[in-house]
Amino acid sequence: MIQLIASDMDGTLLNEKMTVSSENAAAIQRAAQLGIKFIVATGRGYTEAKPLIEQVGIEAPIITMNGAQVFNHTGEVIDTVSIRKEVVRKIFHVLKEKGLYFEAMTTKGTFSDSKMKRIQNVASLLVDLKTTDSFKIAVSLASARLELMDINYVASYDTVLDDKDNFVLKVIAFSPEKREILAPIADQLEQLGNLAITASSASNIEINHINAQKGIALETYANSLGINMNNVMSIGDNLNDRSMLEATGVSFAMGNATEKIKQVARYLTDTNVKDGVGKAINRAIDEKL
């Protein structure tokens, strides 16, 4: 019997409006009434993720930045896994050499060295996630979204590297050329060792410490509750969800998931724009998966 449900956000729990639908929220509440716990597992930072579930009355722990940090339901940090600074310098060097725009997600927030490039790449992500088919509209949405986020803009990432009290949790790099450009760069970064390189869309790669993965963080959290992973359910759509889909007894791929993720998951649900998370939860409850 399912005791804990973990869901990704972008392309999974969130619909094309980047909100949690009433149907998804209702299924989560139904599970809660049956004593089934819920946790969010996202590539986002805490301040980006928390408001989106609060809007629909959900209070839950959150695995952030693919497992680099875990917060309990009150917002207290219960685990942190960072990348060593000397490795971060090498990552930055490779990405700069390849001409990619990238951001550093740290214990002091998200850092960017170009507001314009950030807007352009967030817009591309919104188009990838089917929020809109119009890049111009996506740029407007991205600009409005940035006003709600606390982004630290710096002239150089040396500011981050030289701050001994700031720890890098994740690096995310973007390319409009998508996999054709990103795949070989990901392979090159793999050679640095002890890194987990995944993606949340076709236009990015996400770089974490090898121990900062959703599956590892989820298992640690489940163990703290005395819950066996066979009694945990996970739902996701992209490569950064793979570790938790492989680790849980029940796993659902979204209808809009990549083919690799569909092959990993045991079950398939509807798309993120058709309440796929809610349908997966209700199916798991009704069929006693």
Primary descriptors:
12 helices, 6-stranded mixed β-sheet, alpha/beta, globular, 8-stranded mixed β-sheet
Structural topology:
Layout: E1 4-7, H1 9-13, H2 22-33, E2 37-41, H3 46-54, E3 62-64, E4 69-71, E5 77-80, H4 85-97, E6 101-106, E7 109-112, H5 115-128, H6 135-147, E8 151-153, H7 158-161, E9 168-174, H8 179-190, E10 195-198, E11 204-209, H9 214-224, E12 232-236, H10 242-247, E13 250-253, H11 259-264, E14 267-268, H12 276-286
Parallel strand pairs: 1-2, 1-12, 2-3, 7-8, 12-13, 13-14
Antiparallel strand pairs: 3-4, 4-5, 6-7, 6-9, 9-11, 10-11
Helix pairs in contact: 2-12, 5-6
Question: How would you portray this structure in words?
Answer:
The chain has 289 residues and is α/β, with parallel strands linked by helices. The protein has 12 helices and 14 strands. The strands form 2 sheets. The chain has an 8-stranded mixed β-sheet with strand order 5-4-3-2-1-12-13-14, sandwiched between helices. The protein has a 6-stranded mixed β-sheet with strand order 8-7-6-9-11-10, with helices on both faces. The radius of gyration is 18 Å and the shape is globular. The protein starts with a strand and ends with a helix.
